[in-house]
Specification:
This protein is an alpha/beta fold. 56% of the residues lie in helices and 7% in strands. It is built from 18 helices and 7 strands. The strands form 2 sheets. It has a 5-stranded parallel β-sheet. Strands 6-7 form a two-stranded antiparallel sheet. Helix 3 runs parallel beside helix 4, helix 5 runs parallel beside helix 6 and helix 6 crosses helix 16. It is globular and about 75 Å long.
Length: 437
């Protein structure tokens, strides 16, 4: 009786002659949804007692990543941009511990937009009892910057984007002492998660990002000037209304914009749910990179005794291994071709490096001589491009830290009144580290 009533109701809404069309549309939507989710990693790895540092931990992708890693037994250090007394760390960390049945999930405070906060976090970590790190996942650059429907200053957005990249570079540089003293057999991985809408997520965009960091031919000889980034477009010089009229205009337009955005979001929600990736689907490439065996471990596994069957030996030799420095998307390597530096720029960079002299120069030459035996394969532009990008980041990092110090000095009268709260949060952050287990 119930089935007959249900069939009558469905037939009233959709006549039986349209049932084949409805079934075909449902199958097409299911296939489109499965295709939009992308590939799922087919790898697994035992992460028990592995310490993983995660930035951008309290974003949807970061929370899904922490849940996936903690469920496999990893010890998590979640870098929180909020104070440890904020609702996010105090509520989500115990919730993650209970849902994953893993008590080794900790939070520590570090504002990645402030170099001083990054220095304080790394100092706390390096002076702690346990300095082990098995993986670092930089997820704070995954978050989109700006809005499709809002008019924001391009220079401000570019500075925000650069600050996120410089925070990654600063964290790696400050944590190098702990990484360099690790045992040789320890498998340490550093993963940077990039938004697919950002230019570096596409092959040509990734190439453009590397080239933006390279010196110009004239600047390479000087060693100071660098090529301007294409994304740093200056603001337009068109005249704007007087400032006293702008608040009234924005105040009148704000409710209309909010209603338009809500209506547009309601219209776009069904296709977004159907075609957009969920956080669990988006982190599959990150898990794939963390789970793949390294070439060193794969080489040790392929050294099998002669009694091993030929099929097993061939299967082990064709097994996929991790490619260091590569860009992964949909659990696969994206083929990139970064051209090398021009010959004159490369020679000028080498001469500038040799012309520095002094004890530091001698120490560098000795270390370079030790690494000279390693052949430069020319991939991603070769060693010269890597050095140029590293020097570009160093110069930008110095400018970023100087600008942050100048802003801190300007706000010092205001900041001094709230120093007690900052000390309290940093003290609690020290307790949140896994060093105090």
């Amino acid at each position: 009786m119930a089935l007959q009533a249900a069939y009558a109701a469905v037939s009233f809404i959709l006549p039986p002659k349209y049932f084949p069309h409805a079934i075909l549309i449902a199958i097409l939507l299911f296939v489109a949804h499965a295709f939009a989710r992308g590939r799922t990693t087919n790898r697994e790895r035992d992460l028990h007692a592995r310490i993983v540092l995660v930035t951008g931990a309290f974003t949807p992708l970061g929370l899904s990543l922490i849940s996936a890693l903690a469920a496999r037994g990893a010890h998590i250090i979640a870098v929180s941009p909020y104070p440890l007394t904020h609702a996010y760390p105090t509520v989500l960390i115990p919730l993650l511990r209970s849902t994953t049945n893993n008590p080794n999930i900790f939070a520590d405070h570090a504002d990645l937009s402030d170099p001083a906060s990054i220095h304080a976090f790394c100092t706390r970590f390096l002076t702690g009892a346990d300095q082990r790190l098995d993986a670092i996942v930089f997820g704070h650059e995954y978050r989109g910057i700006g809005s499709w429907f809002g008019s924001q200053d391009a220079r401000t957005l570019a500075q925000t984007q650069d600050a996120a990249s410089l925070a990654t570079f600063l964290l790696v540089t400050l944590l190098l002492p702990a990484l360099l003293v690790a045992p040789v057999e320890r498998d340490i991985r550093i993963v940077t998660v990039v938004n697919p809408f950002y230019a570096a997520a596409a092959p040509e965009g990734h190439r453009a990002r590397v080239l933006d960091s390279l010196p110009t031919r004239a600047g390479a000889a000087a060693g100071l000037e660098r090529a301007p980034c294409a994304s740093r477009t200056p603001r337009t010089s068109s005249p704007s209304p007087p400032a006293r009229h702008q608040p009234q205009r924005h105040r009148r337009a704000a409710p209309q914009r909010l209603a338009a955005r809500r209506a547009l979001y309601t219209l776009l929600l069904p296709p977004l749910v159907l075609l957009a990736k969920s956080p669990d689907a988006a982190l599959q490439s990150v898990l794939h990179v963390l789970f793949l065996p390294t070439p060193l471990s794969a080489r040790s596994r392929t050294s099998m005794p002669r009694s091993t069957p030929r099929a097993s030996r061939a299967r082990a030799q064709t097994r996929e291994v991790l490619k260091p420095g590569a860009l992964y998307r949909e659990c696969a390597v994206v083929q990139l071709r970064v051209p090398p530096l021009p010959s004159d720029a490369g020679k000028a960079a080498e001469e500038g490096k040799k012309g520095k002299g002094g004890a530091k120069g001698k120490q560098k030459s000795e270390s370079d001589g030790a690494d000279a035996d390693a052949e430069d394969d020319g991939e991603f532009g070769g060693e010269a491009v890597g050095r140029a990008v590293w020097e570009w980041y160093e110069e930008r990092l110095k400018a970023w830290e100087a600008r942050a110090k100048a802003e801190a000095k300007e706000e010092s009268p205001v900041a001094s009144t709230g120093s007690g709260g900052a000390d309290a949060s940093s003290g609690e952050a020290g307790e949140g580290k896994p060093n105090g287990q």
